[in-house]
Amino acid sequence: MSTIRAMRVFVRVAETESLRCVARELNVSNAPVSRAIALLETHLGTRPIDRTTREMSLTNAGARYIGLAAGSDNS
């Protein structure tokens, strides 16, 4: 998966606050969505999302990145 695709997946995960919801939108299992987030973590060198089994939230780095990612997706 490309970094740009991972960025788009991240934006949708941030908007929906749900990996499962994004997986359904993409008609895939949760695993590719998780891999996209992991790829982005590697690219950024930090975790953009804190997640537990019940919740997820953007980290400070994720909140900064979401503005950049959402803006570049509109170009």
TrEMBL record:
<feature type="domain" description="HTH lysR-type">
    <location>
        <begin position="1"/>
        <end position="59"/>
    </location>
</feature>
<protein>
    <submittedName>
        <fullName>LysR family transcriptional regulator</fullName>
    </submittedName>
</protein>
<comment type="similarity">
    <text>Belongs to the LysR transcriptional regulatory family.</text>
</comment>
<dbReference type="GO" id="GO:0003700">
    <property type="term" value="F:DNA-binding transcription factor activity"/>
</dbReference>
<dbReference type="InterPro" id="IPR036390">
    <property type="entry name" value="WH_DNA-bd_sf"/>
</dbReference>
<dbReference type="InterPro" id="IPR000847">
    <property type="entry name" value="LysR_HTH_N"/>
</dbReference>
<dbReference type="InterPro" id="IPR036388">
    <property type="entry name" value="WH-like_DNA-bd_sf"/>
</dbReference>
<dbReference type="Pfam" id="PF00126">
    <property type="entry name" value="HTH_1"/>
</dbReference>
<dbReference type="InterPro" id="IPR058163">
    <property type="entry name" value="LysR-type_TF_proteobact-type"/>
</dbReference>
